[in-house]
Sequence to fold (229 residues):
Amino acid sequence: MRFTLPSLCALSLLPQLTLAQPATTPTADEKAALDLVMKVGGTAEIDPKLPAGARVSVKIETATDAMLVGLKKSPQIGSVNVFDATKCTDRGFAVFKELPHLRKLVVSQSKISPLGVNAIGQCKELRALVLINADLTDAELAGLKKLTLLESLDLSENPKITDKGMVHVKALERLQALYLIKTSLTDRGLMELKGLDGLRRLYVGGTKVTDEAADKFADEMPNLRTVRR
Fold:
């Protein structure tokens, strides 16, 4: 169908359509969850990008076990960001598996034991996981293999993670973004990740991966858009 100039002008006079914006007004249950987070010493807000029933996004600057334990009464929590977890132990990390709808978890500056990693590995709804500077080893990565829905994984600043750990990472077949910055990855470990066909972004800055290997890897991965060193 061809539009003449008058018809185009007429179309311009039609009311402009606007996309409906997701509601950010909390439900009664979400309001209770927001209040609880405030009581334990964190901050929280409604994130409309999270699924219904799990829209509460929590941020805690410096966490303790007691603060994390206080969260387990709120199944409406869909995201947790802990900026400093140096005071947390297995008791605190075990709480994450008690949050049935948790989609995103960020834990920085911690020393997570195998028990803590295994607890996180039971958060089966997770889509994004960040464990930065967590003193992780290759063996501990095995505890994450049940996260079959994971799309983004950040293991940066864990120098004890080596090529051997990639056997566990490549089992996470739905990964689209992978951050291995400042790990002990080499060209050999990079090639172990070829099975991640859906990978779109890979960050390997501060590793022993060479430019040549990074370019070769990018050429052989069908969906990869970015490899950054």
The two ends are 50 Å apart (CA to CA). The chain has eight helices and nine strands. The helical segments are 5-12, 28-40, 65-69, 90-93, 114-120, 166-169, 187-191, 211-220.
